[in-house]
Amino acid sequence: LITLDAAALAREAGNVLAVNMVLLGALTAADLLPVSPQSIETAIREVTRSAFVDTNLKAFELGRQAAAY
């Protein structure tokens, strides 16, 4: 069980709509995905519109930190 305030972390990252990136980060920290965090970060950089890259990367990292144990 992972508990975190994803909306608050997304706001901290710069946009409440980045909640999906927070949750994705939490899942990678818990080793629940068959994809490496580095692969996801690369995908964020390559696929996300440039205006949202920094926010999404920060939200992803905040989610990873919140779920790390």
Task: Report a brief summary of the structure.
The chain is mostly helical.
Explain this structure.
- This protein is mostly helical and 69 residues long.
- It has four helices and no strands.
- Helix 1 packs across helix 2 and helix 2 crosses helix 4.
- The protein is flat.
- The N and C termini lie close together (11 Å).
- The model has no long low-confidence stretch (mean pLDDT 95).
Topology:
Elements: H1 6-13, H2 19-29, H3 37-47, H4 50-67
Helix pairs in contact: 1-2, 1-4, 2-4
Count of DSSP H/I helices? 4
Query: How would you describe the shape?
Result: flat
What is the helix/strand order? HHHH
Mean pLDDT rating: 95
Decide which structural class fits the backbone: mainly alpha
**DSSP summary, beta strand count:** 0
Detail the poorly predicted runs: none
Strand content range: under 5%
The rounded distance between the terminal residues' Cα atoms is: 11 Å
Main β sheet profile:
none
Share of helical residues: 55-70%
List keywords for this structure.
mainly alpha; flat; 69 residues
